[in-house]
């Protein structure tokens, strides 16, 4: 059974065939005698001398997107069109080889279009190339200082506002070319000149542009089976090809691409101009390019992790190495007369979607750009400039992302977004980002200082409400309001905020202790009314569940035998939890149970199924027994209760999946290892007979041991716990109802292992019966809503 691990910690070993000796002697053997080198799965970071078919096909798909976009971005900046091809080639080859993100594709990006256009207009093209080289050197210095992760601290509202402002500026400039005119020097001038441009339309340019935009919008939406086939060809390539065919066949007279001879290609010169202006230009290219590249790399990591096929492990991005790769690429691109380079989300996403598995795809795409620049010049010279302008205009409009806008609005950062967008359009990229940061800081300070604290009395209970963040600035108001609560009264303190600093905590805690000592009762709750802390009481007999349970240290306290602990827990449920779940449980009572999966796990008290699966009432149909065992049907002493639960879940409830979950330190597995085969027939011994096939499976010299993702099992007990999960899955397949649903393809089986001490879950990623190796794969945390909004 072969599964794909996600970690490579100590991946240089693999469990070998276990010896014939009794399993209890296994734990005393040295690691060298028990394990051998593993047969790991293919890695995404492969040798540069071996090219997989997936990388080859992905590189062609990315090349077909990058070629027209590179020309269009060069046109939008006012640089020589060849500069876009140089940047695309260098971005693919240099950044692809040296960068830290295996699947990110770098090249000229729309995010730097406005900055580059301004630099070309102010300093000329050759000086702009020198500025690109200096920006690349700055990126190399920042990578050496290992500050790449600091770029992720920028507020998403600022990043999205910056991109939206750049997109709006690009769209306004390219709209003039689409209409057959010439763009002005700024976004404001482009808006002011738009009425005159509308009065002086050029039909040839307009027809080519309309066709380009129409194809770009319609191509991804072609329905049916034909649509799934044609969408394999990039929309950008189809749009530009259609516009070129129209211009050629209709003999439309309009400006075309004109790639001059490479012999006359312009190279950089020593920068000339005010020193402060040049430093600001270098800083702008460095910051904007670095932030865009790093955020794009993080987004591509998430896309690659969510991809189901191909099942190849791709290493996560090394952000400092990625920044160094971008710096090296900018140095080379500027020295060769190319545009500034960043990681490009559009091409990188296409690379992931096309199935790339290593950095060879990006490098090959750069090689195809070189081939096209040298051999396809006559074909490229047929492309109308209006088609490229329309392509870049659509890209600019798409940079004003509605999804990002909704995320910003949801997080109440519209002011920061709007300020950054407006400032970028009106003043420039660097100035706009600085203004956005200033507004974000001002908003954060305003939220920290805006705290509303009120108190009201109802039925003898004083309710203190604190709306906003509790910082040291709010301590005087908090203390004054709390002083209005009479000594000995019942009080509820409701905290409606996400932050409380140390000063506010001390003030609240000291008052709470004092008020309780005077005979009062204090309950501190959150926004939903759930209790979040208890009065400090050194004589408290036992820890409360959940939130205070985080610091559970009651092992040294005397056990309560009078049922008081159970009654206390029930009382807590009725008071705190029942009001929150009553409506949902009432709905389930009306509709009946419809769980999505059967969960078979151990009866161990440390295994809290609802907690580790983040499930609630009605989600899981759970069967718990000693050792998470599934007896084979028809065996002597078979347990009908487990078989009955399986039949009920599969045939009546119609669950979609069955999970067998083992755990570390399982007492049943320890008993199996330590008890002789002829043990007295006690009820526990009779039950553990169903685990002996797992023990035999582990002792089988013809099988490799089950492995836990990227590391060796710590001892024989853990090895048996892992093997037992796989063996019980085989027992499941022998049940008639399960076999029938598996044959119909309507049921899935999955194995799971929970390490109690690490609070880490592992999933068996494959359950094929004809394989010989089992690997449990670590479950990584999923992105938070904020991280998803950045993607």
Helicity level, as a percent range?
A: 40-55%
Annotation field: number of helices: 30
The strand order across the widest sheet is 11-10-12-14-15-16-13
Overall pLDDT metric: 81
Gap between N and C termini, in Å? 35 Å
- Provide the β-strand percentage band: 5-15%
What does this structure look like?
- α2 packs antiparallel against α13 (345-353), α5 crosses α11 and α18 packs antiparallel against α19 (429-449).
- Mean pLDDT is 81; it is low at 1-48, 528-561, 767-772 and 783-791.
- By secondary structure, this protein is an alpha/beta fold.
- It is 52% helix and 9% strand.
- The chain starts with 13 loop residues before the first strand and ends with a helix.
- The longest helix is centred in the middle third of the chain and has 32 residues, at 275-306.
- The protein has a 7-stranded mixed β-sheet with strand order 11-10-12-14-15-16-13.
- Residues 7-19 have a biased composition (Basic and acidic residues).
- Pfam families: Pro_CA, Sulfate_transp.
